[in-house]
Amino acid sequence: MASVGIIGNSHVGAHVANALLAQGLVQELYLSDKDEVLCRAQVNDLLDAMSFYPKPARVHECDTRYEELAGCDVIVNAAGHVAAAATNRDGENLMTPAETRTFVPRIMAAGFKGVWVTVANPNDVVATAIWKQSGMEPGRIVGSGTTLDSSRFKHALATATGYSPMSINCWMLGEHGFSEFACWSHVRFGCLTPEEVEAQAGFSFDRAALEEQATHGGYITMAGKHCTEYSIANGTVEIVKAVLNDSKIITPVSTLLDDVYGESGIYASLPCVVGKDGVEKVFVPEMPPAEVERWHQTCAHIRGNIEKIDWLR
Hints:
With 313 residues, the chain is an alpha/beta fold. It is built from ten helices and 13 strands. The longest helix has 19 residues, at 289-307.
């Protein structure tokens, strides 16, 4: 029986819960939130909808009884302060990583042996914090990372060309934040490079503008609804599904770096194989010098955010 716990159930967490049930992926769902009234409401709403889901499931209200999540296969951390990130993902840097101190030690002491999938921002810093507190193998802590940003890059390229995003393979790498970069050297339309598409279809890609759309596209959503929900929730569920089904997808997630172009000791996004044990293999793409330089810059930004947190550095 697949079981998933979700910590933080306002916007993203609640959409993750609904998507997991809508896809019939879980038999047990444990919701946790500091706001007990909100948590009770979300549980009740999901149970009211149960007859519309493909499979029945039990939904438990855990509030701040974090120990009740210890038996889950996957725990999704969506506990954040979205208002602080209204203009910059670094806005949560001193708050959201600190939130993990209230629940990670308690859940680990209760015997958790599953996989953490963390969504909260700044994503790479929070993933690093969970890894250091949990004492688990680093692959068992998976940051949603640039899974969402890569989807935004597909959105930008699909809009520019008119081609289906299903036919586009592209990657944003590094930080889930403004220092991330588009790995143009590995963009493919079907099996075609951007240069081949430009030559044969008459397109002229404005690479800087398209990367800007991928990096800052979320703030179009933020400006109108003060949060992002559908895109990040669906991206998160793809990661959770890969763990539950051991499906070995290759996707850009935030994982611990071990001498990647000389960078180590922090979490950042690279192409990873995700299966039942979390990140099971990390691939390092061959990048031209300009992209390697961007890689060092984005890692420096993540490391700079970690340095601002006394208990984490």
